[in-house]
Every structure is written in structure tokens, then in C-alpha cells.
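Page 37, continued from 36.
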């Protein structure tokens, strides 16, 4: 995070935007990779963080902005 509390952007070697969500207490992560105007999510650790966020927000894959 920067001094204002905003998430700093990261990029893959080809310049593709990459974002991460970490939960160090649960040793879990979600990595978000932009590709052709869409985002791919990769999760790891014992807690599927992004699945839980989607469930909490009521998002379903392929429906609206959450999929």
C-alpha cells in the first residue's frame, strides 16, 4: 500500500496488471490477473478467499459484474 492506503499496482513481466489479496492469519491468497478485459482469479491456501467474497456479495460466475 502507498502512503494514502491505496493498493499499489503490480504487473507481470509482459505488463499485464496483477492484483493480490492476502490473509496472512489463514495463510490464504487470491491473485487476480487481467487478460483481454477480463480478470482471472487464482486462489491458494486453506481458505478460498475469492469464493467467500463472491458468496458474501451474492455473485455467481457469468452473471453481472461478479463473474
Amino acid at each position: 500500500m502507498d502512503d494514502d492506503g491505496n493498493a499499489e499496482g503490480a504487473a507481470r513481466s509482459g505488463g499485464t496488471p496483477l492484483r493480490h489479496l492476502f490473509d496472512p492469519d489463514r495463510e490464504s491468497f487470491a491473485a487476480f490477473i487481467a487478460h483481454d478485459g477480463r480478470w482471472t482469479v487464482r486462489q491458494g491456501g486453506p481458505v478460498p478467499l475469492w469464493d467467500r467474497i463472491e458468496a458474501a456479495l451474492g455473485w455467481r460466475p457469468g452473471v453481472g459484474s461478479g463473474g
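Residues 15-66 form one domain. Flag for discussion at group meeting. The mean pLDDT is 77.
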